[in-house]
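Retro notes, structure queue

What went well: the backlog is down to a handful. What didn't: a couple of records were mislabeled last round, so from now on we paste the full input next to the output in the thread. Example, using Delta(24)-sterol reductase from Daucus carota subsp. sativus:
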Amino acid sequence: MSDLEAPLRPKRKKIWVDYFVNFRWIIVIFVVLPISFTLYFLTYLGDVRSEWKSFEKRQKEHDENVKKVVKRLKQRNPSKDGLVCTARKPYIAVGMRNVDYKRARHFEVDLSAFRNILEIDQERMIAKCEPLVNMGQITRVTVPMNLALAVVAELDDLTVGGLINGYGIEGSSHKYGLFADTVVAYEIVLADGRVVRATKDNEYSDLFYAIPWSQGTLGLLVSAEIKLIPIKEYMKLTYTPVKGNLKELAQGYIDSFAPRDGDQDNDEKVPDFVETMIYNPREAVCMTGRYASKEEAKKKGNKINEVGWWFKPWFYQHAETALTKGEFVEYIPTREYYHRHTRCLYWEGKLILPFGDQWWFRYSLGWLMPPKVSLLKATQGEAIRNYYHEMHVIQDMLVPLYKVGDALEFVDREMELYPLWLCPHKLYKLPCKTMIYPEPGFELHQRQGDTSYAQMYTDVGVYYAPGPVLRGEEFDGAEAVRRLESWLIENHGFQPQYAVSELNEKSFWKMFDAGLYEQCRRKYGAVGTFMSVYYKCKKGRKTEKEVQEAEQAHLETAYAEVDMPVD
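Corresponding output:
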């Protein structure tokens, strides 16, 4: 047996959870998929019903629902009731971390009615959406108008509220930034019941910049006005194989969208969409897309690939064929391209249904895909959740573009996990220091991908079972995540908080900046009403006493070391 084939760690003894996970596909096929399909269909009918209503009627219903939220907040007795949370069930969140903060006593506010598109303003190029509008819903409305949100997150179920309060990215983020960077106004219900509209240049500009990444801990988001862009009917997608070591793969990825002459704002040189998938330590496929008209796509000799059909090969496997047949180009209907990873949940579908990518399953039952993440979470108990936290990784590493090679080597060394997803995004230099911010003085270095106003970052998506787990070896998932988080802090990286986090409070505020966030917590009365963002993201059960003590610490003093602002 060669050194590469020899186990690198001691073998792990199997327990009953291992066998349950191996045969979980039975529950997925006979329970999760049928219920998921039914829920998707009912949601679709609800969306159609909403679309039949005029924008005026939707706005009127919205105003009435906002009044109900205000009334509910004013019913809260701070001395008797718990902290404010939405009434949404914990398992419904798409993120992988346990929503443990709702296990403590809390005061629920129902936002379930806020799921309508309130306006499509083609003059201002703005879509006004309520927080539970999801990506599948918005693209179904805008794409036929040859319009789209500037950043459309790939999975259908991701909502406007989650992408703003948390984190959202897409292949267009190298041009427009993260999802929250495309928002021009927030409508927020504050702790005292006031309804305010926050923009970057009005009296609530501090709140406008503090909302992203705050996890709904500054107020209740009830609508957002989001930037629209003009699009065309097809995406012309070029698949380019890259081979070499990890540093060479990283450079190939950077060269696919970042001109070496620094002309990053030149649309002639920079594609509309970018993503790269690293399939192993020696091979990757870079994909670059440009919008194309239907006339161009249907020209003789051009290949059209409707990847949205249920029987089609899973997208990541289709892209992998470039490694054997070389570079190729095809045209994909734009909406199908936006949601290319939905059906197989990137490559997580392979773990959920090991045979889900086989032709016989795709043709016979592929129309039931994907399973709803919320149902997958609802059908697993505490032991299964803990197993996935230890034996499975769902993390995004946001790192400066020039450090992508180092990040790939870190993941390979610590987790041996493939495929990996790379997606670039601008991190803007803003008038104030927000929770995430570019490296001080980045513009002086003039690195590839950077501009004078934004540093180019990359999301390294780490989703799958690590190599040691697949080989049946021991693997400490919690310790691996701790090392990942430490690496991010040392390299000015950030970890989206939808994922499981092992950060303690002090380390959390080393990764993120607390200054503006804390200022807004106090100014707008969030302290004592909404849970702090760290405590909301903290792993583990939270008792009512812990919640009260944490909030009391907020009232008495700043709970973290905050770096002095950089000039």
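Agreed that this is the format going forward. Reviewer comment attached to the example: Residues 386-499 form a domain with the Alpha-Beta Plaits fold (CATH 3.30.70).
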